[in-house]
Structure formats: C-alpha cells, structure tokens
C-alpha cells in the first residue's frame, strides 16, 4: 500500500534511472513512492524560458532551468564563491545537471553508445583501471531493454553498429536518423583518413512516433529541450507512472537516509520548500539522485553504525569521480558544412576509442556537433563592424563555415578524485558538494600524443583555415564512479545489481556504479544497470 | 508534407508560438521580465518611434517588424538621454547623401557616440538582444535577423523547418543567393 508517508519501494529522484525502475516495480504490482527535490514544470514553460534567454547565453544548457532555492543545481551565472559545486584540483569538475522532476535528460542530447566488451575489462586487457564485476554479455540483454524502453534508434547494418565486438541480440526499435549535408560531408572526410563516422544510436524518434511521442522533426534544440518530446526525457514518463499508481512528491529534498539496528534502511527524511522536515518509511529504498547527489546524500547520512556515511564501509563513496573530459576543435573552413540541420548530435567516430594503446593512454571518440551556429557567430560578426550586405554575408559565411569537432576521452577511476562535503551550505543549510579532480596522466597523454593529433588531421582534411582548441578539458556531464560497483565489499560500494554491500534493502543504481567510463556517452549504461537493479528488486521483494 | 524555408513566417509556426506564449506560466513571465527589465517601460512617443523605424530602415535594407522596433526603442530611450537628437543627426547624414542603402552613408557617421549608436541599433536587430551579456534585454528570438541570413538552410533552434527525417538535401554552396528578407 502507498500512502504519503510509506510505500513498498521508496525511490529518491525522478530522473531516467528512477523512472525506469519505478515503472518496472509498478508493473510488478508494488507500491512506489518517488521523492523529487525539484519542481515539476511544463515543457511549454521550459521552451519559453529558452526562447526568452538572450542569444549570447543560449549555449548555456541550464539557462532554461533556473534552480529553486531549496534544490540548487549548477547554473552558468554563478560566481565561484556562490557556486553550488565547490571545486578544487588541477582540472575542473564543473558538471551541469538539473534538479527538476524528470532530471537531467530534460537537456541531454540522447546520444546512446553501448560499452564494448573491452571497455569492461581494462585491467585484464591493458593493465589499467578496474575490470567490471559483470561482463558485456551479462549487460547485453539490459541494453536491448534500454533501447526499447527509451526508444533508441540506430542502424540496422551491422557494420555501422556500435560496438563491433560483442553480440547484439536484437535490432534497434527504430532506424537510424538520416545525416544532414554537413554530417554527410564530414563522414566522407573521415573516410578519406580511414575513419568511420557512424550514425549515433540516439533516444530520438526516427521517422515515426514511439512511446506516445512524435517523430523527430529536426527542431535542432535537443539540448536544452526538445519542444515536442521526440527525444526521450524522463519527464515524458511521469504522467504514465502516476496513472499506474505511483505517488510523486516534488519540491522535496531528501537529506538523510536512516538505518535501523539491523543496519537496514528504515526511512528517508526530506525537507519541503518551507524547510519543514518529513519522514518516509518503506521496505526497500532506491537512490536515483544521479552520480553526484547520491554520494553526497550517503555522506550526509552518517550515523553511529555508519560513521563514514551510509553504504560507505569501504570508504569508496564519493571517490573515483569520473566523466568524459572533452576538448573542442572549433574549425573554420572554406567550404560550407552548415551545422544545424536535423538533431544536434547525429554521428560519431567511435573506433578511435579502442586499441592496445589503452595500456599507455586513453582512447577518444570524435563527434561533429550539429548545433545551428548563429548563436555562436553573430556577435563575432557584428564586432567586425560590418554593415549591409557585407554583414549579411559574413554571418552567413561564419554560420556555414565554422564547426565544432569534439574529442571525448575516457578517464581512469582514481580514489583521489573525490567528492566530499563542503563546509559551505546551501539555502536549506545542507552541505554543498566539494569535488577534487584531476583528469590524470592517462587522459592528458592521450590529448598530447593521440586525440589532438587525430583531431588536427581531421580539421586539416576539412579544409580548415583556422583551428581553435579549447585550452583545458571541459566536462561532458556524464557523472560516474562515486558509488563504484565491485565484487569486494572492501573496495566497492555496490554489488552487480547496484545493491549496497552494507545494506541489503538499499539500491544505488546509475552512473555512480560504473567501474570504467569508456568514451561514449554513458546514460544508456546507467539505465541498463537500473533495469538490472529493477529485476533484482522484484526478485528480492518476492522473497520479502 | 515538407514545409520549406519560406514557411518560416508561416501561420503554423506563429500559431505554435502563440499557444506556447499563452500557456507560459507566471514564472516564465517573471523570468522574461527580469531578463528584460526595461521592457516594462513604454514611454516612447510616436514621433520618436517613427524616427527610430526610419533610421532602422536606413541602416538595414530588410523588412523590419515595427513591434520589435518598439521594444528596441523603448530600451534605447532609457539608455540614451539624447536619443531623439541622435536619431535626427544620423537621418540627416543619410538624407544629405540621398542614401538608398546603408553603404551609401555609413562611413559619413562620425566615430564616437553616433557611430556606436548606429552599430548598437544594427546589433539589436540582428541579435534580437541589447548586448551579448547574460543580463541583456531580449527584443525577439525568432525574428532576429541573424536567422534570416541563413533561413534557406539552418533551423532556428526549436522551430523545425523540414519534417520527420526530411533534412537530407544537397549541401548549399556559399555562392547560393542570400535569402530575401
Ligand atoms: C547538457 C547535457 C547533455 C547530455 N547529453 C547526454 C547524451 O547525449 N548522452 C548521454 O548518455 N548522457 C548525456 N547527458 C547526461 C545525462 O543527462 C545523465 O547521465 C542522466 O540524466 C543521469 O540520469 P539520472 O537519473 O542518474 O540522474 P538525473 O537525470 O540527474 O536525475 C536525478 C534526479 O534526482 C533528483 N534529486 C537529486 N538530489 C535529490 C535529493 N536530495 N532528493 C530528492 N531528489 C533529488 C534530481 O532533482 C533529479 O530529478 C547529458 C547531460 C547534460 C547536462
Ligand atoms: S531535432 Fe528537434 S524534434 Fe528532434 S529531438 Fe531534437 S529538438 Fe526534438
């Protein structure tokens, strides 16, 4: 039975990880209560926020999602001293994510690369990082279920699918989206260098409606919001969950996970937006607050039985924070590429992420960003002081003949890349997260000897007259590692089902569990792990 | 059906925006207002508005929407104390040259306040904003002229211009004619 204060299963967070688990449990007949820190808003409101934002900040993915005082998330306009994320270390871990009902898939691009079998065996194959506690074959059926659940389209030609190693037991539910003229040209250029620029598997409806959502019609606005919900985002599932009986509490920030004498989870407590505290009990608890908020919450919940924090007997909670550090090459070309036709990311060179070189340095994945470029070039053209026809022609030229090619790298799990609780507090008085981060030699070396040299060759083949390379690594917003998976309770936080080693009725699925990053965007893997967790939860509840 | 770029100003698109605006909540409204603090003022007389559109049409040889112009001049009246004189001065320079287009007189505008203002007016129409900054006032998004220069090819993000899987087409050469707008 579900009440406002109790349910069979209590899920904290309504992002994609939370909602896929919720749906499976509801379908299995369990009562589900979801607690969400942020507000619930309409798509129309987000789209209007975006359209009303000044042209110069339209590249800021958070601009359409002002954070609520009680549920802060990183915003582009923060001063470092007021910032929600407190950062230190040689590299920045300035992630963005959204604390709204529906979570960060509101503004994801939908790119969905599976891991390869090799990505999950870095230690045994290349002597670096960690091996996963499960293998690709175990994950494969969960990938298929994820592709069907989210509506991930992709090519049917085996030669164009990713990964090339490892089996694929079922086709994508929809065909690949077609390439724009710029992507077609980029693909030809990559081919001339011996690289295959293949269609991205993406959570976007290709040529047909799917899951009650319309076909993608090329609005080129997937980041920061698809105006028609042709791209999957978790918000699109919330009404369905409610129809199936889920209770959803919004504007409710969970700040404590409570254990009982058996060291099982007994309850969670949350603050509403009036700073009133409430307590929710349940039989089983799922933390789905994302790879950064989950470790923060666990550390905040320390008690006498768990002096390092809940689920943290290994001292690994908050360690091994990972992402895909990326470098962008902004290329000016003679011939037009015309980014901004079709979806914002539609192809990628993945094969450069694999190889025996991984014993020495990281691999990299290259993508041609297909964002319409007016927002990036208009002010630069205006600053040239041109008027009349010359101004029109310059804006048109710069829009057509500039392009971003991004190299996204893998990083290794490093316990020193660590999230801790800052002594700075937020509006509710809760500690802000502090993250110390260094991408590490493995990744830096890749940029020096591997990824940037390849990127420069690609730029040259594109006919670049100018190439600007980002001076430092930027974040990909794929938050991984902070509640890492493993077989040993001594050096990992969760088991192969994302169940806490320390608390049998606590599941912590999602990016935090990932033991390696590979190079491709990782939400598909987070969701595959969530579905695996849901199977285990259904099994466990049957026994309960 | 494939909707072609010439539909950009079409009724379908405008009505969708109308619906969205109608559905926008108080909260979205307050964001817009806080981003555009000066838009609340509407203190510009019809004469100044007329002069502003006259100047804008001298600086920019495209169709300009007077509703957008009204928002720009509203902001300008708060920012530039001597707005009316500047409008008159630049218009006089153009008239002296019998200018039919901006190229005919722009070089004659003296550097300094007048030239800077002329650039600001052009920038406002092309970017739809008062500046590049985060706190810029927004006069328009989808009618910003930057998007008109590429409207035969590039999507105005959030306003699709083709249809499901219909964006494959030959690459348009730079030598293709500029869209008429
Ligand atoms: C701009 C951008 C583009 C991206 N593009 C891609 C892409 O193309 N491909 C890809 O694979 N990934 C992409 N990502 C990453 C992707 O968005 C995340 O991996 C994904 O959303 C993670 O899902 P999640 O459910 O774990 O967390 P989230 O989606 O972040 O959801 C977590 C939920 O928990 C809630 N919550 C947090 N703390 C609390 C609390 N204390 N109490 C209650 N509720 C709480 C939040 O409000 C939120 O609703 C992108 C991210 C960004 C920012
Ligand atoms: S291209 Fe447009 S319709 Fe397609 S997913 Fe992106 S925003 Fe949605």
From TrEMBL, chain A:
Top-level taxon in the UniProt lineage: Bacteria
Domain Glucose-methanol-choline oxidoreductase C-terminal: 413-530
Classification via InterPro entries: FAD/NAD-bd_sf, GMC_OxRdtase_N, GMC_OxRtase_C, P2Ox-like
Region described as Disordered: 300-319
UniProt key word Oxidoreductase: yes
Membrane-spanning residues: none
Protein name: GMC family oxidoreductase
GO terms, molecular function: flavin adenine dinucleotide binding; oxidoreductase activity, acting on CH-OH group of donors
Pfam family for this entry, one: GMC_oxred_C
Domain Glucose-methanol-choline oxidoreductase N-terminal: 187-325
Membership in a protein family: Belongs to the GMC oxidoreductase family.
Cofactors demanded by this protein: FAD
Matching SUPFAM superfamilies: FAD-linked reductases, C-terminal domain, FAD/NAD(P)-binding domain
UniProt keyword terms in alphabetical order: FAD, Flavoprotein, Oxidoreductase
TrEMBL record, chain B:
Pfam family, one: FAD-SLDH
InterPro entries to which the protein is assigned, alphabetical: FAD-SLDH_ssu, TAT_signal
Superkingdom classification of source: Bacteria
This protein's name: Dehydrogenase
